[in-house]
């Protein structure tokens, strides 16, 4: 007889479903007997360019120090971020991916007596970090797949401690424009922390989407989180950061693990931050690929949710799960999003032109089978 340990877990944890990541290439290769090089993965919003030469070099340079603990305060990376973004280092918190930042916020500020507000169809990590600390998750219905900030403001109660907003949002790609964000920030009580998750901000090329950094001086309750996993191309290394008032950063730093960002990640992020050419090329590939996917979907008679990220949520007009499975058999991995309340959509990451074409050809094949 063994103990049912799940029944001992905190109630919020018992009710959680584990995060489901995009299917790894190696896993699909094993399952279907495919060669990894024949598989296209457009499932996790990763940068299709591969790491930049500057990053490879930085990692090689950091290798000699592998036996030493990393700089637990990430001095060099914080200095570089502060200079680039025009913020003070005292307001920067480094994270093991920006997921780490999202978790630090609830661990530092939220308890079982509190509520956390976010939107339907928003990033799956928000309910996880909320329920992990025993708090009540309040998911607010979306408007046209995007955040309904009026409804979110109305959902704030005296028990609310944190509001999560993703801009642009994943998995929908929807974005919030400047006036709407400003009206929301003005309306939120000053003791409620607004986490503005800007994981895709480097892909935004239009000026209708606000830059959270601009609002930090005016709103001491604002925390902007960003990542090196997407446009900077370092998803495997796990490095992200939070920008906030120094008081919030101080609280986050009290609960984080002392060496949460490893040395290779610190060195790589520093190099990536200075590699402007890589970012420009990443945006170009994304802009082109977005057009290619939109044109391809239009040709197939499919609609999609307009996106400002490096991915597109495509409406199949029917249950997407069987199409996802059939695409796997063609060696194409995309992301089903039924767990986000979007059973008819597939989320497809913008890849290289030939990868996008592989996906469109496979999709056409699969859909033609009815
Ligand atoms: C990908 C993503 C992140 C980044 O996660 P990391 O832990 O930094 O890799 C954060 N928020 C959203 C909305 C994302 O889509």
From TrEMBL:
Q: How does it assemble?
A: Homodimer.
**Known pathway:** Amino-acid biosynthesis; L-histidine biosynthesis; L-histidine from 5-phospho-alpha-D-ribose 1-diphosphate: step 7/9
Q: Which organism is it from?
A: Halopseudomonas pachastrellae
Please verify whether the record's keywords include Transferase. yes
In the record, biological process GO terms are: L-histidine biosynthetic process
Q: Which domain of life is it from?
A: Bacteria
Q: Which family does it belong to?
A: Belongs to the class-II pyridoxal-phosphate-dependent aminotransferase family. Histidinol-phosphate aminotransferase subfamily.
Name the needed cofactors: pyridoxal 5'-phosphate
- Residues recorded with modification N6-(pyridoxal phosphate)lysine: 230
Enumerate the catalysed reactions: L-histidinol phosphate + 2-oxoglutarate = 3-(imidazol-4-yl)-2-oxopropyl phosphate + L-glutamate
Spans traversing the lipid bilayer = none
The record's section on PANTHER family has: HISTIDINOL-PHOSPHATE AMINOTRANSFERASE, HISTIDINOL-PHOSPHATE AMINOTRANSFERASE 2
Q: Does the keyword field hold Amino-acid biosynthesis?
A: yes
Q: Which InterPro entries match?
A: Aminotrans_II_pyridoxalP_BS, Aminotransferase_I/II_large, HisP_aminotrans, HistidinolP_aminotransfase, PyrdxlP-dep_Trfase, PyrdxlP-dep_Trfase_major, PyrdxlP-dep_Trfase_small
| Descriptive protein name | Histidinol-phosphate aminotransferase
Listed EC numbers: 2.6.1.9
The record's gene field reads: hisC
């Amino acid at each position: 007889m063994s103990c049912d340990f799940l029944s001992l877990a905190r109630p919020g944890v018992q009710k959680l479903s584990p995060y489901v990541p995009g299917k790894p290439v190696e896993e699909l290769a094993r399952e279907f007997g495919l060669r990894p090089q024949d598989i296209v993965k457009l499932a996790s919003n990763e940068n299709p360019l591969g790491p930049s030469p500057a990053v490879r070099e930085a990692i090689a340079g950091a290798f000699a120090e592998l036996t030493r603990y990393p700089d637990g305060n990430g001095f060099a990376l914080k200095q570089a971020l502060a200079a680039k973004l025009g913020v003070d280092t005292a307001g920067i918190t480094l994270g093991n991916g920006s997921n780490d930042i999202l978790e630090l916020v609830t661990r530092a500020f939220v308890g079982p007596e509190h509520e956390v507000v976010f939107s339907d169809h928003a990033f799956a990590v928000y309910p996880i970090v909320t329920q992990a600390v025993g708090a009540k998750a309040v998911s607010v219905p979306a408007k046209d797949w995007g955040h309904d900030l009026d409804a979110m403001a109305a959902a704030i109660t005296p028990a609310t401690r944190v509001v999560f907003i993703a801009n642009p949002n994943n998995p929908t790609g929807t974005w919030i424009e400047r006036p709407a964000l400003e009206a929301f920030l003005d309306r939120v009580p000053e003791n409620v922390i607004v986490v503005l998750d800007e994981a895709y901000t480097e892909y935004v090329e239009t000026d209708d989407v606000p830059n959270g950094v601009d609002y930090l001086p005016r709103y001491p309750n604002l925390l902007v989180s960003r990542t090196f996993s997407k446009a900077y191309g370092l998803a495997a290394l796990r490095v992200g950061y939070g920008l906030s008032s120094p008081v919030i950063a101080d609280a986050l730093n009290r609960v984080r693990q002392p060496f949460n960002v490893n040395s290779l990640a610190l060195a790589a992020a520093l190099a990536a931050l200075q590699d402007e050419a890589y970012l420009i090329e990443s945006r170009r590939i994304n802009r082109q690929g977005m057009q290619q996917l939109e044109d391809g979907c239009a040709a197939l008679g499919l609609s999609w949710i307009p996106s400002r990220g490096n991915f597109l949520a495509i409406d199949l007009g029917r249950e997407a799960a069987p199409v996802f499975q059939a695409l796997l058999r063609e060696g194409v991995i995309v992301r089903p999003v039924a767990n986000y309340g979007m059973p008819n959509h597939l989320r497809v990451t913008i890849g290289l032109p030939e990868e996008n074409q592989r996906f469109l050809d496979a999709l056409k094949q699969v859909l033609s089978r009815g």
